[in-house]
């Protein structure tokens, strides 16, 4: 009976820690449960993105030539720049987690805010890339309706102008200089090429937009955790929120590490 009373007493003492939830016995148990829950959530995210990656793999194999040609319309320099930015953001996030583990509250908040800054830089670069894609009609729009493929002829013309001016031209093609849909030299082949290229860019915008959405959610969560970090809410005994948001952010970065080569680094960029 005395052993039982001692167990109850010990359990009550654990509750004196302000960060221990009532349904856990120790902070270690609470930390393990939080980590397991985050990994379970990330597993569902893998399945979520996995459907898009599976669709990409199937159609990449089926329409390999056109996927390579369509990929060549993406700006590899901007894609590589964003890759470096996200790698840096993973570094600052890792530093934030480390600071939370060592009780450096102020630097925990600072590194989290720097992570948000790098994330905003990524979206800023992505904005200018998407804006260019919209201007040359690569972004889904009314030109994609039905069997029309004028948009694809226009995009190819814009790419030719960029190559001629060594990638520094901001001029757009005159629609009068682009072959109309009913031009006899296009025919069935032109329609097929347009449809296959349309499929690539549809996957591209779905995957990159979904990735950007996850980044926006991350900004909100990181901002909230940074606020509490400045309030001294985390310590060497309790840093699960910082560690878990770190896992989430690293997952977002890893997704982009896969997206970059799949979308930007196809054979067309390597001279094939």
Short note summarizing the structure:
The chain has 272 residues and is an all-alpha fold.
Give an account of the 3D structure.
Helix content is 73%, strand content 0%. The chain has 272 residues and is mainly α. It has one domain: Up-down Bundle (Four Helix Bundle (Hemerythrin (Met), subunit A)). Helix 4 runs antiparallel to helix 8. The protein is elongated.
Show unreliable segments: 1-15
Helix content: over 70%
N-to-C span:
79 Å
Record field, number of beta strands: 0
Question: Could you give a short account of the major beta sheet?
Answer: none
If you compute it from the alpha carbons, what radius of gyration comes out, rounded to the nearest whole angstrom? 25 Å
Count of folded domains: 1
String of helices and strands: HHHHHHHH
CATH class group: Mainly Alpha
Helical element count? 8
Structural class, from helix and strand content?
mainly alpha
CATH architecture: Up-down Bundle
The CATH topology name reads: Four Helix Bundle (Hemerythrin (Met), subunit A)
* The CATH superfamily title: Cytochrome c oxidase, subunit III, four-helix bundle
3D shape: elongated
- Beta-strand percent range: under 5%
Mean pLDDT: 80
């Amino acid at each position: 009976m005395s052993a039982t009373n001692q167990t109850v007493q010990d359990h009550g003492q654990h509750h004196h820690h302000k960060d221990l939830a009532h349904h856990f016995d120790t902070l270690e148990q609470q930390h393990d449960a939080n980590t397991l829950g985050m990994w379970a959530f990330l597993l569902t995210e893998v399945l979520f993105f996995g459907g898009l990656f599976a669709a990409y793999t199937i159609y990449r194999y089926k329409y390999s030539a056109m996927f390579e040609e369509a990929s060549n319309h993406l700006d590899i320099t901007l894609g590589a720049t964003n890759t470096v930015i996200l790698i840096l953001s993973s570094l600052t996030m890792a530093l934030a987690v480390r600071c939370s583990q060592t009780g450096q509250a102020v630097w925990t908040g600072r590194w989290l805010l720097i992570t948000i800054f790098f994330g905003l830089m990524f979206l800023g670069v992505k904005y200018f890339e998407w804006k260019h894609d919209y201007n040359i009609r690569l972004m889904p729009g009314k030109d994609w309706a039905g069997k029309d493929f004028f948009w694809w002829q226009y995009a190819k013309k814009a790419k030719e102008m960029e190559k001629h001016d060594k990638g520094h031209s901001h001029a757009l093609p005159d629609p009068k200089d682009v072959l109309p849909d009913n031009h006899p030299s296009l025919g069935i082949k032109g329609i097929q090429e347009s449809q296959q290229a349309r499929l690539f860019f549809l996957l591209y915008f779905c995957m990159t937009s979904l990735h950007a959405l996850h980044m926006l959610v991350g900004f909100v969560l990181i901002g909230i955790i940074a606020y509490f970090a400045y309030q001294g809410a985390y310590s060497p005994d309790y840093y699960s929120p910082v560690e878990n948001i770190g896992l989430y952010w690293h997952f977002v970065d890893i997704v982009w590490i896969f997206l970059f080569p799949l979308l930007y680094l196809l054979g067309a960029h390597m001279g094939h």
